[in-house]
Specification:
Tetracycline Repressor, domain 2, 105 residues, mainly alpha, 67% helix
Length: 105
């Protein structure tokens, strides 16, 4: 569910005249997401769930790579769903976890 006013903020940030604001927010969000996942990877390493030698670099490549991979694809299309499934397969292989372990929809 979208919070009241969120759609207006979303639209405002995506106006062409606000490109710089959009880029700053996107970069800030990516840093937060990557940091969160790095913490999860490090915990998984400590608990011997997986072995990821370079957690920060791994997450930067995965998050930024997946973002670019999905760029411009209609989120309601079959193509988007298929690309997400393929991307998740790559993530599962990266961490050496069982195929189908990650479910997002």
């Amino acid at each position: 569910m979208v919070r009241p006013g969120a759609e207006q903020i979303f639209d405002y940030v995506h106006e062409e005249r606000n490109q710089f604001l959009h880029l700053r927010l996107e970069r800030m969000l990516m840093e937060k997401i990557i940091g969160l996942f790095v913490s999860i990877i490090e915990q998984g390493n400590r608990e011997k769930v997986w072995v990821v030698e370079y957690p920060l670099e791994t997450m930067k490549i995965l998050v930024i790579g997946l973002q670019q991979y999905l760029y411009g694809v209609d989120r309601l299309s079959e193509e988007y769903g298929e690309k997400v499934r393929r991307g998740l397969n790559i993530v599962e292989k990266t961490f050496g976890i069982i195929k189908g372990s990650i479910k997002i929809f």
